[in-house]
Amino acid sequence: MLKLVQKVMLPMCAFLTQRYARPTGIAFVDSIKIAVCHNIRIPQNKVFKGLAQRGKGTMGWFYGFKLHLLVNDQGEFLSIKITTGNLDDRKPLLEMVKNLWGTFYADKGYLSKMLVEDLAEQNVKWITGL
């Protein structure tokens, strides 16, 4: 299964990028973990060795990647990014919201005064605390 995931990851990202929708002025952002193996099996994992990283999500520690999604109010993709599991959720946001505008909603994990100020310069109103 992991070999299949490794083979289709890049083509899947390319396909999804082609399917981006137009912004509607309302968007939601969140990330989910993509665990490549159980924590106990990390030392034996060879498929994503050197790529996957340990990260922490709301459900605890995992080894793998994070899928960051930005969708409009109709559930259509505006931006997608896959990062290592140890990357802070706020890091890829400025790149993801480039050329977008409106009001964006996120959970408390995205709280950052500097991020709010940077996004305001791009005509993005940031609402966290969902």
Looking at the structure, the CATH topology is Nucleotidyltransferase, domain 5
Low-confidence stretches: none
Global mean pLDDT:
87
- Give the assembly state of these chains: single chain
Q: Structural class, from helix and strand content? A: alpha/beta
| Overall 3D form | globular
Topology, number of strands: 6
Q: Radius of gyration, rounded?
A: 16 Å
Named CATH architecture: 2-Layer Sandwich
List the helices and strands in order. Answer: HEEEEHEHE
Continuous helix count: 3
Q: Can you give the helix content as a percent range?
A: 10-25%
What is the strand content?
35-45%
InterPro entries: Tnp_DDE_dom
Pfam family, one: DDE_Tnp_1_3
Protein name: Mobile element protein
Domain Transposase DDE: 21-128
Short descriptors:
Mobile element protein; alpha/beta; 35% strand; 6 strands; six-stranded mixed sheet; Tnp_DDE_dom; Nucleotidyltransferase, domain 5; 3 helices; single chain; 130 residues
SSE blueprint and pairings:
Elements: H1 2-18, E1 26-37, E2 53-57, E3 60-72, E4 77-84, H2 93-96, E5 102-105, H3 113-120, E6 124-127
Pfam families: DDE_Tnp_1_3
Domain Transposase DDE: 21-128
InterPro entries: Tnp_DDE_dom (IPR025668)
In short:
By secondary structure, the chain is an alpha/beta fold. 22% of the residues lie in helices and 35% in strands. It has one domain (2-127): 2-Layer Sandwich (Nucleotidyltransferase, domain 5).
